[in-house]
Amino acid sequence: MAEAAVPARRSGGVAAPGLPSWSGTALRVVVSIAVTLFGLMALTFFIGRMLPLDPVAAILGDNATQEAIDAMRAQLGLDQPIWVQFARYVGDVVRLDLGTALTTGKPVLADIARVFPATIELATVGIIIGTGLGIPLGVMAAAYRDTPVDYFVRVFGLLGYSTPNFWLGLMGLVLFYATLGWVGGPGRIDTAFQWDIEPVTDLLLLDTAMAGQWEIFRDVFGHIILPASILGFGALAYISRMTRSFMLEQLSQEYVVAARVKGLSWMRTVWVHAFRNVAVQVVTVVALAYAFLLEGAVLTETVFAWPGFGRYLTNALLAGDMNAVVGCTLLIGIIFVALNLLTDLLYRLFDPRTR
Amino acid sequence: MSASTPFGVWLRAPVPASPFQARMQALWKAWRRLRGNPPALAGAILLVLLLAVAIFAPLIATHDILAQDLTARLQKPSATHWLGTDDLGRDIFSRVVYGSRITLYIAFLAALIAAPLGLIIGTTAGYLGGWTDTILMRLVDIFLSFPSLILALAFVAALGPGIENAIIAISLAAWPPIARLARAETLTVRNSDYIAAVRLQGASRMRIIVHHVMPMCIPSVIVRITLNMAAIILTAAGLGFLGLGAQPPSPEWGAMLSTGRQFAMNAWWIAAIPGCAILLTSLAFNLFGDGLRDILDPRHG
């Protein structure tokens, strides 16, 4: 997470200043997205096919005969020139075919669709915690700069940046689950309830709430709260730090002095006047933090045996299942590009200063 | 350093008489600013301690880090085993001490690969401009489209597990932000008069980039890489935890945590202690990096 300490504008190349004309900009945006996506595919292709690990050996094992190896090479298209292989890969991806996962024997995309709701649910609860605490903390730290409030928020944030979340998860399990018994253990739900749920959205909190199964809802909540809090802690660190620095900039402006001279209370000045001006920036930071939770989820899910995207990726990694690894990596890249595009759009729509 | 001693006077002289004196004065000023920034000082002290532990590990460790003693497994912290023993009866304190060597080795080597790579690509793109710039920066954008851990994981998956591959993977994921930073710095200096002056003297592009542009970018690159070290350490520990980094019986902290995980419910210290070590190291780099930014780069002060 510390990567994002500086407000890097990770645009997909659409940060052109000014708007000469909507059609021209739209065209440029489309071209730039196409180039970026092409680049993503080139990079994942490179990782999946060019680096040393032999896909044929991964499928057939070490004892295969030379004929079997040659046949498999032909079947995978590895006997073709590299550019033919790449063109075929691009064609497959465009047709939403990410290949077959060796570990499950199913299409990678179907696997991802199956495990993704678990991660979305975890990340969403995490970002709610991170935003709900991170924004007020950041604003208060800026409003009371260089006071104990500010020091507390900064130290708390620094710990969020520096703590390995998989370790925090493990310690949390030892303390809150094994010792105190306050929360549910690993997994999304107690096995006793596993078959009582009618999956509609695959978001268990939503499914149980809609069906009115409050006892199961409480169990699911008990399972999600610890991993989500730990993910949220990382998001909190990032959100509070960025909010603080945006607010410090606003609070040094003259209109703040003017509002105070007019007799407005400090809290009203801070929240109503200054915060309004940073709201769009904060929303973009929250969007980025949400994306970074995907990264955090890889390790957190492993610790909590959470049957989501992160654990799927980890299992694929350990099994040397390159189709699944490359598919997951590409998907995360696309999500990031889409989110960056979205935040750029947000800026353009809601912040008059960018026009 | 008192102003009354000859050395103190020499350090404070308004006009330095030699390049050496000028450098010493700059160092002295940096040290004074560091002293005025308690969090950064705390980070610096922690880092020095950590380096000392890594260097003098054989003197500090109380036990052989590979010696197994199955009669003394999973012991709580005690007088003989200060931080307890792990599942094979190995002394955790000694292993954590030796583990600092591996962590620092990974972090510094990754920084030594990523920083120059980012610096070269960023300054070249920024100074040459045009198509070179477009292509190189597009490459940076593509790498930045992935969170660094995911990218490192994908590279390790392809290269195979192991500490060297982990370092390569982490470096490949860490250079792009540096390149972007170096390019931004280059754009601010490329049109200055001193660059025009060297160009008129007939310096080649290569010479200008290496001798006149890069030095201007180095302070901010150092700050950035110091802050990145914290992230690099967390990534390395994460790779070790997943079994993709350093392999057992190496006392790498992430790998130790991974073993500790299996015994966490009845012997919490096996996992708790390497985690604390990772946290402290990463915290030290974050504190020091924040302070360094304030010291070297007054704009962010």
From TrEMBL, chain A:
Domain of life, per lineage: Bacteria
SUPFAM superfamilies xref list: MetI-like (SSF161098)
Transmembrane parts of this sequence: 26-47, 122-144, 164-183, 220-239, 270-293, 324-347
Localization (cell): Cell membrane
Entry annotated with the keyword Transmembrane helix: yes
InterPro entries tied to this protein: BPD_transp_1_N, MetI-like, MetI-like_sf
Membrane topology: Multi-pass membrane protein
One GO location term (cellular component): plasma membrane
ABC transmembrane type-1 domain: residues covered: 116-347
GO MF: dipeptide transmembrane transporter activity
Main localization (coarse): membrane
Keywords: Cell membrane, Membrane, Transmembrane, Transmembrane helix, Transport
Family recorded in the similarity comment: Belongs to the binding-protein-dependent transport system permease family.
Protein name (database record): ABC transporter permease
Organism: Teichococcus wenyumeiae
Automatic annotation (TrEMBL), chain B:
Lineage of producing organism: Bacteria, Pseudomonadati, Pseudomonadota, Alphaproteobacteria, Acetobacterales
BP term (GO), one: peptide transport
Matches recorded under InterPro entries: ABC_transport_permease, BP-dependent_transpt_permease, MetI-like, MetI-like_sf, OppC_N
Keywords, sorted A to Z: Cell membrane, Membrane, Peptide transport, Protein transport, Transmembrane, Transmembrane helix, Transport
Protein name, entry field: ABC transporter permease
Residue ranges crossing the lipid bilayer per the database entry: 41-61, 102-129, 149-175, 221-246, 266-289
Membrane topology: Multi-pass membrane protein
Matching PROSITE patterns: ABC_TM1
SUPFAM superfamilies: MetI-like (SSF161098)
CDD domains the record matches: TM_PBP2
Native species: Teichococcus wenyumeiae
Main location class: membrane
Protein family (similarity comment): Belongs to the binding-protein-dependent transport system permease family. OppBC subfamily.
